[in-house]
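Internal tracking record. Fields below are filled automatically when a chain is submitted to the structure queue. Please do not edit lines marked as system-generated. If the sequence contains nonstandard residues, flag them in the REMARKS field before resubmitting.
Queue: standard
Priority: normal
Entity type: single polypeptide chain
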Amino acid sequence: MTDVAVRPAEHTPEPVDRVGGRPDREHRIFRGALVLIIAAAVLVRFIARQPLWLDEAQSVAIARLPLSGTAPTMWDGLLQDGSPPLYYILLHLWISVFGESTASVRGMSAVINLGSAVPVFYLGRRLVGDRGAKVAVVLYLTSPFALYFGTETRMYSLIVLLTALGGLALERVLRAPSVRNVVLLAVASGCLALTHYWCLYLLMTVGAWLVGLVFVRPRLAAARAARRGRAGRSGAHSRGGRRPGAPAPAGAGEQPTAAQPSAAPELLADAAGGARRAVPTWHPRGPVTGIVGIIAGGLVFSPWLPNFRSQLAHTGTPWGEPASFAAVSHAYGQWAGGPTTLGRLLLFLITGLVAAGIAGRPLGGRFVLLDLKGLEPGRTLFFLATGTLIVAVAAGKLVGNAWADRYTATAFVPFLLVVGLGATMLADRRVFHGVVVVAALVGVIAGTSDVRRERSQAGEAAAVLTRLARPGDILLVCPDQLGPGLARTVPSWLKVYVVPTYAAPDRVDWVDYEQRNESANGVAIARRAIAEAGSNTVFMAGSGAYRTYEQLCTQVRATLQEQRPVADEVMEQGLPARVYENYALLRFRPS
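SYSTEM-GENERATED OUTPUT FOLLOWS
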């Protein structure tokens, strides 16, 4: 009887672009195309001139407050907003130098967004290799997700920067534990927590992974070794041992030496043949030291802890509901291509690269073998990205916090590295070039469409009010979330009050927000505005699509209509597909 065995391919192709080789015409075209696409992506980050919407305008209104004094300070604004301080401190310094124009405040995000490409590349080079890192940077610079938040006056570009820097610090700790590296990791961890509270979910996920490496992975490795030993003894007894002259199994008879690192300290390494996925090895104390570094980040965060507790008790996200776990897959759609039609088409291409990054081995030509068990480092990077999202959904259900796609920037960097790694699994040069160029080009086109979308009707409303309003007229804003954007655009002589507080419109006070709105009296607010206006006109900027305002804005509008029946709509509410923050503008003239 003859034994027949099918041997897997032992020599899979090397990466298609070899170092030292002279680039041919095709490769020069590839590089030239990428240069043009990336240049366009850089320019797109500076073209957004639309009026600021709520979150952006609120950020500027808080950041421009003084740091000290008897008047409301930036710290008072942050307590009302429910945000940590780091981004606002940086924006405060930026405004003091460059001013608070729309172009200026968005320019800070663009600069941080572009600067993040540097640590993303160095982190990628350590984890997925030089080629994978380059692809990750190209797809980051042309990503619709990154493009949009590179044009928004919010902290999401800073989150990406700090995530990449924190990843580099963690990799250094795992590779070479030292006091200096632990301090760097602690600073990065603390700064992440001081930038956005969703970063705590990322830190929890990374911490859980490290704990698993310390306590769980050694036990799993020992169990696997025991199973292999039993299987080997069983096979030897049943066949009478290895046939004379037969080759020994790979690794048989080898004993680890002092110079050889153990299996556990391999940092996201995979022994697969072909395209190498291995990265530098861990120090045996690396995971424990990494846990210490993340915990030490609490010392950086600790001065803010009393404020965090106050925010946790009184602010939150009353504007939305907790998400279901389906939001995790939705987040991948946002990362891959965004909400536009082209972005959804890009999702198909990016999904293939993600699958290749998690489990792919190149077989030559256009073929990639998928190992359903997954391969490192893609498997762990995917776990960190997805685990962060799962923790965020679970925490939201527990404490009642809402989900927003923009918050998922906390887990964007591991996703980018998985995509970059997946592209390196394409052994055919033309396929590789085509996939990267198409993904980059479609990303810039889709991202540009998203960046150019109107974010608020504040500019349109200001133009209407400048034409129709007169000194002494009053503008009621319901809900108050429309106020910060309008405060930057409407004529300064116009009296503007928000519902229900009848306060200035530049900042939303989120403290006990839902309870305040539910107890408000819309009739009294409308009558107060009519009494103050006297013979002047009362305008109302309003939308009925905001949570906690379902009845209040309707009540205010009905009272105004009852008291002043000579009313008309002077600005139509925009379509959500064309303008993000949309509302109507009504005019109530005296009889």
